[in-house]
Amino acid sequence: MADPKDERRPAGELEASVMAALWAAGAPQTPGQVQRSLGTDLARTTVTTILTRLHDKSVVERHRQGRGYAYVPVQDAQGLTAKRMHTELDRDTDRQTVLARFVAQLSPDDERVLRGLLEADEQSGG
In degrees to the nearest 10, what's the CA dihedral of 5, 59, 67, 11? Predict the structure, then answer.
């Protein structure tokens, strides 16, 4: 059974902490290794549950190591953020309106970056 202290933390916060630990490690990690690197009071079973959920979401891959698994992120942090943005965009049927509102809310700096990326993509034939 999960420790009551673990249940008070939002799942997204726990997943983010586990992902940060995996990215920092730079190598496949077992639940026990992740637990130690977090340096928190999370039970190993809780870390295992979080890693299993991340695997089910295709955010991490797992490879057999001994009797358990070692986990590794599928993408870096920026790639995962981009994937989430695509997931949100795919949830709405009116993509044009969603994109228009997204662009309208960009800061001038972000707009300049996005324009540069789009222009570079056009020049490369993408």
Answer: 10
Question: Average per-residue pLDDT in the chain?
Answer: 89
Q: Please name the helix (run of DSSP H) or strand (run of DSSP E) that holds residue 19, with its range, or none.
A: helix 11-25
Structural contact between residues 64 and 77, judged by C-beta atoms closer than 8 angstroms: no
Residues in the chain: 126
Residue-wise pLDDT for 65-95, tens only, equals: 999 999 999 999 899 889 888 888 999 999 9
Query: Which pTM value belongs to this model?
Result: 0.71
Q: Which residues have a Cβ under 8 Å from the Cβ of 63 and sit 6 or more positions away?
A: 28, 69, 70, 72
